[in-house]
Design goal:
The protein is α/β, with parallel strands linked by helices. The chain is built from 8 helices and 8 strands; from the N terminus they run E-H-E-H-E-H-E-H-E-E-H-E-H-E-H-H. It has helices spanning about 15-25, 50-55, 75-80, 95-105, 150-165, 180-190, 195-200, 205-215; strands at about 5, 30-35, 65-70, 85-90, 110-115, 130-135, 170-175, 190-195. The structure holds ribulose-5-phosphate (5RP). Ribulose-5-phosphate binds near residues 35, 145 and 177.
Amino acid sequence: MNIQIAPSILSADFACLGQEARRMELAGADLLHIDVMDGHFVPNITIGAPVVYCLRKVTKLPFDVHLMISEPDRYVDAFVDAGANMVTVHAECPSADEALKQLRHRGVKCALSVKPGTPVDAVYPYLDKLDMVLVMTVEPGFGGQSFMTDMLPKIRTLRQWADQFGLPLDIQVDGGVDVNTAPLAIAAGANILVAGTAVFYSDDPKATIRKLRSGRA
Ligand SMILES: O=C(CO)[C@H](O)[C@H](O)COP(=O)(O)O
């Protein structure tokens, strides 16, 4: 399986986001994971579409925008206009269905995410309409938390469904991914790994990205 690494800008130095994005591009990242938080869906506030728009000018990395916001349907257009290549909304949001419809209409990749307490069954009705499912392996809101190994069965179930129905589904994992936990996620069936702390705080991000991609501890 082709494994992609998406550094999460939540762990970047926000005083120089553009340089941080370029640092990840030079280190060999496949995507830039952009954490959008509204202080309501999660207890933290990060950035909005204007920041994504400015970042779009400084890197060619595809933007993987993770909307941890309560009303994603209100903001999908703004993030797509700003340069998002793929957008993830949360299954727990009442307007997730509407947001996914808008994303498909705009022609960007769309994904649904489940928080740790949400059963993976929540994405089942949408499977054939999704490009990706994001399995959260921490409670969303903050970087630097520990990987929840009890989320691995969700990844296995998703990979099984994708194989069973012949769906080209990407399975992304986010939270506590490092060189020790990446092999677990990959073995379970994940093919896109989000990593904040492990990559941004590494002395050698290029080597860390290569190591994460290898699936070997
Ligand atoms: O979405 C997130 C938190 O809600 C972050 O992307 C995630 O926690 C990555 O950070 P780390 O690799 O440090 O755990």
